[in-house]
Amino acid sequence: MAEVSLRKVVKRYDEVEAVRGIDLDIADHEFVVLVGPSGCGKSTTLRMIAGLEDISDGDIMIGGDVVNDVPPKDRDIAMVFQNYALYPHMTVAENMSFGLRLKHYPKAEIKTRVAEAARMLDITDLIDRKPKQLSGGQRQRVAMGRAIVRNPKVFLFDEPLSNLDAKLRVQMRIEIKKVHQKVRTTTVYVTHDQVEAMTLADRVVVMNHGRIEQIGTPNELYHKPATRFVASFIGSPAMNFVPCRLEDVGGRMHIRLTDRLAFPVPPARAARYQAVLRTDKLLLGIRPEHITEARQHLEPGVEPFDAVLDVTEPMGMETLVYFTLDGTQICGRVNPNAGAQDGAPLRLAVDLNNIHLLNEVTGVVL
Amino acid sequence: MSAITIDKAGPTRKVKYGSMSRDRAWALRWSYFFLVLFAIFSLTPPLYMLITSLKSSAEISAATNPWWVYHPTLENYIGLLTSNQFLRFFWNSAWVSIFVVTITMLISVPAAFALARMKFWGSATLATGVFLTYLIPDTLLFIPLFKMFALVGDWTGIQLINRWYVLLFIYPTLTVPFCTWIMIGYFASIPKELDEAAIIDGASWFQTLTRIFIPVALPGLIAATIFAFTVSWAQFLYPLVFTTSTDQLVLPVGIITTLIKGDVFNWGQIMTGALLGAAPPLIIYAFLMDYYIAGLTAGATKG
Q1: Which site from A185, B30, B211, B274 is most exposed, i.e. has the minimal number of CB atoms within 10 Å?
Q2: A-chain residues within 8 Å CB-CB of B191?
Q3: B284 to A278, B220, B223, B280, B293: CA distances (angstroms)
Q4: What value of ipTM does the predicted structure carry?
Q5: Rounded distance, CA A102 to CA B25, Å?
C-alpha cells in the first residue's frame, strides 16, 4: 500500500496536449475518483500512473519513489479494465493467479490467495470456468479478483462498470466499495459517471480539458463547486444557471433575474458578494432541490415567486417541474402532492441560502 | 408530395407471411446447385487419378472406357512404395516441409507480434512491406535467387545448389510474408487491454507472446502452419530449378523427372505418386479443418 503523487504531469500527443500539468496527492488507503467528460484526460492520467503511457513532462511517484521510467510490472499496481481483459484461454483461477505464477510464488500461497479473493467476491463456484461462460458482472468480479490476489500497492480502475447494465452497475458499485473497505488498498478510479464518482470516492477529482477543475470530497463538490463546470457536471438534474445582476435597493442587496423578478440576498451572502456588486456578467447557480413549492411559512432566505410550468416529470418521490425565465429553462423539484401540472401556474419558492453566484466570463464561483 | 402518395400506396400490397422462408428455400436450392457443380468440377481430376492409378499400363493404353477399371491392380502402388527412389523423394519432401514450417513459424510469429503490438518507428511501413514481398511471384525470383546462391558458392565454397536443404532458405521467402500477414491480422484482433493486463500482471513481451498471444491466436497459428506446410509440400518451380540429382529431389519434381522418360509417360505410377503425395496435406486438413476455417475467417474480417 502506498501514496501516489502526481507533479505537473503532462501528456502530449504530437500537437495535442491531452493532460496539461496535473498535481495530485493521493493518500495511503484513499479511494480517489477521476471524473470528467470523455476526452478530459482522466483515462490518460490513469494509464500514465499504470505505466501504459509515457509521461511527457512532470513526475509520478508511487510510495515516494519516482516511477516515470519504471515499467508497469515493477510498479506493483493492479488494473481493472472496462472490457475486463480476462485471458480467454484460462480458467477463472488461472486468470487470477497469472501474475503470481509469473512471479514464481509458491503454489500453496497462490492457492490460498485465490481462494480468499474468490470468497471475498463470491465467485468460489466459478473458479474452474472459462471467461466466456461468465456473465458481465461475474467477469468484472474475476477482473477485480485478479487485482486483489496480487495485493498491490495501488488499484487502478478504468471505467470498470461502463459495460454493465444499470442495475448491475449499482450492485457492483456497492461491491467495489465493500472490497475497498476490506482491503484498504489505495485506489484510483476513472469514470465519466458523476453518480459513481460521488458514491465511491473519498475524494473526487473533476477534470476537464486535461486540467483539474476541482478536488474535494463528494459533499464539497456538490455544495461548494469552484467552477461552473464542476457545478454543472456534479448533480442530476443539473444545476440551473440564470443570468442576473446585483442591485442595492434601499440599502439591501437584491439579486435581479428579470425585470419583474428580484430577490433580497440573505445578509450572510450579501457580505460575500459586496465586491462584485457592480459586475455585469453574473450567473445565478441554483440546484433544482432549492426551487420547491411555496409553503405557508417560509424560512428566512426563502422567497416565493409565481411560475407557469412548461413540463412536469413525476418521479414518484418528487416531481420535476420545468419553467422558463426570460428564455432560460429552469428545473425545480416539488412535492408530488403540490399540484404541479403541465401548462399550469404554480407558486414556487427559491432558497437563497443555497445559491451560487458565478462570473459568467471566467466561470468562477464567487 | 409524390413521394408521400407512393408511400401511402405501399401497404395496399398484400403482405405475404412466410415469404422469408420461401426466399430462403430458393437461396438454398441455388446454393446446392452451385455447390454440387463445383464439387463435381474439383473432384473429377482426383477421381480420374484414382481410377487410373488402379490400372495396369496395358489397360491405360487400351481403348476401353477410361472411367472404369476392368482389371483393378495395386501394382502401381506396390511399385512405388517399394522403390527406394520414391521413398527418398517422399522423405525429402517431408523433411523440407517440416523444417520450413518450423523456420516459418519461428520467424513469422515473433515478427507478427512485433509488427502488430510493439509500436516502433517504421513498423507500419514494415508491415506493408511484408505484404508486398508476398505479391512478387516466384517465377520472377528464381533466377536472381539462383545467381545469389551460385555467388555464395563461389565466394565461400559452401555449395548449396543441388542440395535439398537449399530449399530451407528459399521456401521461407514465400511462407514467411504470408504467415506473418495472417498472424498480424490475427494478433490485431486481440483486444489491446489483454496485453496491457498481462504487462501489468508482470509479463515480459516474450511471456505476453508465449502465454497470452499464442494460446489465444491458436486457430490463426494453425491456419498459418497449414498454409506453410501446403506451400512447401506442393512447391514445384524452386525445387525444379535448384535441385537436379535424383537423391536430392522432392516429391512433385521427383515424380515428373523420373516417371516421364523422354516421351514415355508412366501414367499409372504418375497418378499413384500424385495421389500418395496428396495424402499428407489431406490428412492434416482433415484433422485441423475446424481450426483452419476459424483462423481464415478471423483473418478475413480483420484486415
Answers
A1: B30
A2: 83, 85
A3: 87, 15, 11, 6, 13
A4: 0.84
A5: 55
